[in-house]
DNA sequence: CGGTATCCCGTGTGATACTG
DNA sequence: CAGTATCACACGGGATACCG
């Protein structure tokens, strides 16, 4: 017998949302979720983490090639931000020419898992989204 | 016996990443993942979806109260964008005073699940992140 | 190579005012 | 109530030039 435990799931989801909103109501910097989600939402962060997921370690210009379209400046900024939040480690070798190796920390790896799920979601629902966009366009043309 | 199938998981993750990057290399607007992730990354979209997850349906000003700090303009823009992508439905009742009810579509609900996982991740790792930030600050002070 | 510093422009976003 | 319209402006982010 297959149990469609929709109601149970609904309850769990509701609870989760309530929890999120409890946290969300704290002020400014003190709100961790608002704060963290704002960071992760950044598109360059997402792509940089994905790129670092491909290589175990990567150097600056390697990353720049992988993350299509990112400028030197934004890669620097993004990497610093990720480092600051403990998602990426930065190993400097005092050689000439200088070498710097970036890698995901274990925390970063754990986030990578989340990113991949998001990416999978995006992939598997792209058709629905595309369809919705077409509908929306037509709707606008009618009025 | 507990099997730590790290290697298997690694393989899966690698494969997933490669898949994402295959898609990512297509050009401009044609890249669905780049496109979709960029949308979802928007912080107002995230919070609006979470808010809509709390109520089955919600009216404009209800949402405005729930999504702490959002301006009228940005709520409008965000809702339109979500509607355009098929995540939110918009039901207009031609009454006076006018009434408009927003709700998550099934697609939106499915995305909500993903958002909640992200939020959970953020919650359960906030201490590590906070610690990383402290370390980073100190590191900067040393040099 | 792996950055930092500076400039500068577009647009994202808040504030305010008006409308059906 | 549920928006639209307009303006003003800070800030993200690209281009460029320079440094250790």
Automatic annotation (TrEMBL), chains A, B:
<dbReference type="Pfam" id="PF01638">
    <property type="entry name" value="HxlR"/>
</dbReference>
<dbReference type="InterPro" id="IPR036388">
    <property type="entry name" value="WH-like_DNA-bd_sf"/>
</dbReference>
<dbReference type="InterPro" id="IPR036390">
    <property type="entry name" value="WH_DNA-bd_sf"/>
</dbReference>
<keyword id="KW-0238">DNA-binding</keyword>
<dbReference type="InterPro" id="IPR002577">
    <property type="entry name" value="HTH_HxlR"/>
</dbReference>
<protein>
    <submittedName>
        <fullName>Helix-turn-helix transcriptional regulator</fullName>
    </submittedName>
</protein>
<keyword id="KW-0804">Transcription</keyword>
<feature type="domain" description="HTH hxlR-type">
    <location>
        <begin position="31"/>
        <end position="130"/>
    </location>
</feature>
<keyword id="KW-0805">Transcription regulation</keyword>
């Amino acid at each position: 017998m297959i149990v469609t435990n929709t109601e149970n799931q609904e309850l769990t989801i509701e609870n989760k949302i309530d929890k999120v909103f409890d946290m969300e109501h704290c002020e400014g910097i003190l709100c961790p979720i608002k704060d963290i989600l704002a960071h992760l939402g950044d598109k360059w962060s997402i792509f940089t983490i994905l790129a670092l997921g491909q290589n175990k370690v990567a150097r600056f210009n390697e990353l720049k090639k992988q993350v299509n379209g990112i400028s030197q400046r934004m890669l620097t900024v993004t990497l610093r931000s990720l480092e600051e939040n403990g998602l990426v480690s930065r190993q400097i070798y005092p050689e000439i020419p200088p070498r710097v190796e970036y890698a995901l920390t274990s925390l970063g790896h754990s986030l990578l898992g989340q990113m991949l799920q998001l990416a999978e979601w995006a992939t598997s629902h792209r058709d629905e989204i595309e369809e919705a966009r077409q509908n929306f366009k037509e709707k606008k043309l009618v009025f």
